[in-house]
Amino acid sequence: MKNIFKLSAILLCGLAVFASCDDDRDNNPTLQTPTTFKLNTPVYSETNVDLRSTTSLSFSWSQPAYGFPVAANYEMQFSPENKWTVSVDQALADESGNLVPTYGSAGGLRSVVNASVLANDIATVLERCEKWDVNEVPDSQTVYARCMAVYAGDTIYSNTVSFTVTPYYIRLKSADPNYWYLIGSCIGDGKWTNTADAVGTSVIPLYPITGESYDAKTGDGVLSWTGYLTTDGFKMVHVLGSWDEQAGSKDGGIELSWNDGGSSNICVPENGIYTVKLNTKTLECSIEKYTGTVNIFATMFITGDFDSWAVATGMNPFSTYAGAQNHDWVYDLTVSADGGVKFTSDNSWNFNWGSTEFPRGTGLAGGSNIPAKAGSYKVLFNDITGQYNFIEK
Description:
By secondary structure, the chain is mainly beta. Helices cover 11% and strands 34% of the residues. The protein is built from three helices and 27 strands. Residues 1-25 have low confidence and may be disordered.
């Protein structure tokens, strides 16, 4: 009988050892080295997507089988011929000018397994690869997409999916700033309308800063906005019409939480004038109380050669929610010919702003005429900082 008890004890100890080993494996998973991963076929793959009339296209994928959840970086890539030999970035960096790109990246790096990529960015990749003249853009074009994943120094690619688009001609130039937008109860009309046509009513892009440099390919750099914020809160979004990329609050204050759909509103400790500054490449952000002198204007005009300097074109206040203190002004402007433009609070010209920069810059008190180019623009002007932005339609 003693031998039976001894044998039972040995078996129980062995089971405990095996259980301990299993726990060790569960708690200390081994990093796997996958060679590919799954990019889902988009729901619009059987339709023809008109890139000119579409704001953004959504993509999603499964995390590569690393063996456990990891914070990998992902980026979407697109090709008109399913060739992945020379990237747009490689061709742009080639001083000889002999490299012809076959694919390009769009949408930027992200740490989540989905992306909303601007249709304009996809159209730009196609134009850089195909180099269509304005009258040679096809009515239909197959686009091939894949996703790149980078983790622990290793880069892998997903499968390729295809869809059909109607492209349009893009006048190639350096990338526009990589905008992020303010939205919230103390922003604009306070209605949280996250759509492209709500720019100037519910959402406003942060302004580029004079003297800052912006990446010619990605548009990344430092942006800022200065204005009146309340304890009612706001958020920042990257792609209008989507909440996938957003900045909220971790705790209901100004410590930010990125890409968390359950985050709280960003709330300043007290109502007042603040400056929000964001580095779009590193996502470093500061929200600080503004200490300069602030004037409150009842009206603001944009005037210039386009209206014979009549000071008759009144801009619309952006901040209109109950209790708002407005410092941003908006106007949809069409300029038929190149000419000078300025901002003024009234026809006395006591407060007016001008600069030599276009389409964006910082107006100085009594500065030069802004050299506007012919075109149609959404014009934004901040009367605290003098920052302005002519966003081409």
